[in-house]
Amino acid sequence: MKKYILFLSVIVINLNILLAQTGNVGVGTTVPRSTLDVNGTMNVNNEINLGGTNSAVGNSGTVGDLISANGAANPTWKKFDLPNGYLDGLVLTASSLKSTTVGASFAGTGTGGLPYTENQALPASWVEITGVSEPTFRITKATNIVNIFVQTVAQVTGTDATGSFGCGIYIDDQLKFTRTGIVSGASGSYRILTLNASISNLSVGTHSYKFACAQRNVPVGSTLTIGQSQNTAVLSATMAGTSSSLKILEPIQ
Q1: What does pTM read for this prediction?
Q2: How far apart are CA 113 and CA 103, in angstroms?
Q3: Is the dihedral of CA 22, 26, 30, 32 positive or negative?
Q4: Which of 59, 92, 202, 217 is least buried, going by the fewest C-beta atoms within 10 A?
Q5: What is the dihedral of CA 227, 130, 205, 166, to 10 degrees?
Q6: Mind listing the pLDDT tens digit for each residue in 8-18?
Q7: Alpha-carbon distance 177 to 147, whole Å?
């Protein structure tokens, strides 16, 4: 019995020496990097107390509280008031904002433009306004909504100034949304065009977005520009430019 007591005493002494030397305890690791280093999963069946001291038990928080990191300081419990159904809805996961004063110009030919249909490929007769296009954006969830908002200005000049046009949103070089317009009046007349498209459930992976415009009918002697000014006395370059926002909404869980 004395041998066993002596053996256990040696183990306890050696363990105390080890703890005194390192000050760290490791679970699943022989090289603990912190006071308590757990290398593996952890199962907690009771409360977690934060902010305790040697003389007082820490705060266990209240129902619904979440642990909030506090940099080098101690973490704290925080309450986040989320509306009912929040976790079942969609949240913004990515966004992009772009603008440009370089647009598209169409000299009048007096002939009608080519018809266009949904999901058609981007034809040569359409002019892309590259400054607001997004070559790459990523979808990570099967349920999603991609919202694209574009605002631009069409201006027409000429003795009999008039011109009709169409502008569209292309996803992966396929037409998904379009709006048409017409400008007529004195030389330099202009109008604002706004597109607001919501495209649902794109496939998971990488996609591209392009904004492009085409003439529908511009008479000979008229010139139609979209996204750029051709008469700065009436419309400045900045005011005539194109701005675009792309937002991706996906489930939070």
Answers
A1: 0.70
A2: 18
A3: negative
A4: 92
A5: 40
A6: 444 444 444 44
A7: 11
Tell me the residue type at 73: A
Residue numbers in the chain where pLDDT is lower than 50: 1-20
Q: Using CA of residue 125, residue 131, residue 135, residue 141, what is the dihedral sign?
A: negative
Round the CA-based radius of gyration of the chain to a whole number and report it. Answer: 32
Instruction: Quickly list DSSP for the chain.
Output: -HHHHHHHHHHHHHHHHHHHHH--EEES-SS--SSEEE-S-----S---BS--SSS--B---TT-EEE--TTS--EEE---PPTTGGGSEEEEEEEEEEES--EEEE--SSBPPP--TT-B--TTSEE-GGG-EEEEEE-SSS-EEEEEEEEEEEEEETT-EEEEEEEEEETTEEEEEEEEEEESSTTEEEEEEEEEEEE-PPSEEEEEEEEEEEEE--TTEEEEESS-S-TTTS-HHHH-EEEEEEEEEE--
**Digit-coded pLDDT (tens) for 113-158:** 778 899 999 999 999 999 999 999 999 999 999 999 999 999 999 9
Domains in the chain, CATH or no CATH each: 1-41 (no CATH), 89-251 (2.60.120.1340)
